[in-house]
């Protein structure tokens, strides 16, 4: 008679055959349609001179779209603003994906002690490999564009550790950055040794990618809606947007399956686990509390982008004089315009999708379920904060 061997855990992924099948199918399809090779080839072949006169995204996805700068820009300048949106947007994605690679591994480590979770771990391993290809492609294009246009970095940055602030432009200081570093490092340790926190990281990952999915779908359509013959002549960055979105659609599926369905297999969280999980969600809502007119669809704190805007305007590309550049920044960020309204609309769409995503999570309080810090955003608040910070920036830039 066969005896059952004692295990460290009475939880097995195989106990939920439907979730297991969904996860296995998602992993299989992701491997079959993996775009790593296409991304690597695109990055290697990218030549800015070959596509510098083309739009890379739908027109509304342009730097400072709908602002006075956009309204007065020539066609050639609008094309550059469109390309700079791509550079700025995917520079932010690089920052997020650096952190994702690390926390994918700590989450997988947190599940090692549970039976039959190999599929989850291999899913996360494979996605980390894809993230490295994404980062390489975005970095290659972004740096070549900025070297060509400005001869220096404006939105791009050197590679950096996972514990840096994920949001590139935000309201921060040295003390806040140090505290955030400690929090991220502590979270990595906790998730690597606790199955609930490991799975809950995927809940956070899914929440963080929700708005990205909305925006990136539209960016990818610029390429996917083309006739196949047009795609052969399409700008390389447009193809990269499409390949990236196709990979990320599977990543979003796995976030939902691991962070929602598999999480239900585990024992109910203890008070400490609930507290850590809640802090992770609240932190995300706090990070996404701002909306950005500089880059519609990113949650930057726009006063932190004033210097970047100034550098772009003063560059040989736009050739603004100092006073004109200062005045344009004030008009774009401190006076109500179409660009501000469009960016706020995107933020509110994200807020509603976040609320729907969080609605089934029992350990969250009512304020968090309603959007936490995100729900406090308004155009009036945005204009006041920008006007106050602009006065300081104007004095500093004088």
Give a brief rundown of this model.
By secondary structure, the chain is an all-alpha fold.
Description:
By secondary structure, the protein is an all-alpha fold. It has one domain. The chain is 67% helix and 0% strand. The chain has 16 helices and no strands. Helix 5 runs antiparallel to helix 8 and helix 12 crosses helix 13.
Helix content: 55-70%
* N-to-C order of helices and strands: HHHHHHHHHHHHHHHH
The main sheet comes to: none
Q: Total strand count, please?
A: 0
Helix and strand topology:
Layout: H1 17-32, H2 36-45, H3 48-51, H4 68-72, H5 75-110, H6 118-149, H7 174-193, H8 195-224, H9 228-231, H10 236-261, H11 271-287, H12 306-314, H13 322-334, H14 338-358, H15 366-369, H16 379-397
Helix pairs in contact: 1-6, 1-10, 2-6, 2-10, 5-6, 5-7, 5-8, 6-10, 7-8, 8-10, 8-11, 8-14, 12-13, 13-16
Structure keywords:
16 helices, 398 residues, mainly alpha
């Amino acid at each position: 008679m066969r005896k059952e061997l004692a295990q460290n855990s009475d939880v097995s992924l195989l106990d939920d055959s439907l979730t297991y099948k969904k996860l296995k199918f998602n992993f299989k399809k992701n491997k079959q349609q993996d775009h790593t090779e296409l991304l690597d080839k695109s990055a290697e072949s990218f030549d800015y001179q070959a596509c510098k006169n083309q739009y890379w995204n739908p027109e509304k996805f342009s730097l400072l779209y709908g602002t006075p700068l956009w309204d007065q820009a020539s066609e050639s300048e609008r094309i550059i603003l469109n390309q700079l949106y791509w550079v700025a947007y995917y520079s932010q994605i690089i920052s997020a994906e650096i952190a994702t690679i690390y926390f994918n591994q700590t989450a997988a480590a947190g599940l090692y002690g549970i039976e039959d979770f190999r599929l989850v771990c291999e899913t996360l391993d494979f996605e980390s490999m894809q993230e490295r290809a994404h980062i390489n492609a975005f970095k290659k294009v972004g740096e070549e564009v900025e070297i060509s246009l400005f001869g220096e970095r404006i939105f791009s940055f050197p590679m950096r550790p996972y514990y840096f602030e994920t949001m590139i432009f935000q309201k921060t200081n040295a003390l806040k950055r140090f505290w955030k570093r400690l929090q991220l490092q502590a979270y990595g340790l906790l998730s690597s040794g606790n199955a609930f926190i490991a799975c809950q990281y995927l809940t956070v990952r899914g929440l963080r990618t929700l708005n990205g999915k909305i925006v990136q779908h539209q960016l990818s359509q610029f390429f996917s809606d083309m006739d196949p013959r047009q795609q052969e002549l399409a700008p390389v960055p447009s193809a990269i947007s499409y390949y990236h979105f196709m990979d990320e659609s599977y990543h979003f599926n796995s976030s939902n399956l691991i962070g929602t369905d598999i999480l239900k297999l585990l024992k109910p969280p203890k008070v400490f686990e609930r507290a850590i999980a809640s802090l992770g969600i609240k932190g995300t809502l706090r990070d996404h509390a701002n909306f950005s007119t500089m880059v519609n669809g990113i949650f930057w704190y726009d006063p932190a982008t004033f210097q970047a805007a100034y550098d772009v305007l003063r560059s040989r590309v736009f050739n603004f004089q100092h006073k004109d550049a200062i005045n344009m920044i004030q008009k774009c960020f401190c006076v109500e315009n179409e660009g501000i309204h469009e960016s706020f609309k995107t933020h509110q769409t994200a807020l509603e999708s976040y609320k729907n995503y969080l609605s089934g999570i029992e350990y969250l309080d009512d304020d968090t379920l309603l959007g936490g810090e995100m729900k406090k955003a308004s155009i009036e608040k945005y204009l006041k904060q920008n006007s106050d910070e602009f006065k300081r920036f104007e004095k500093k830039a004088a």
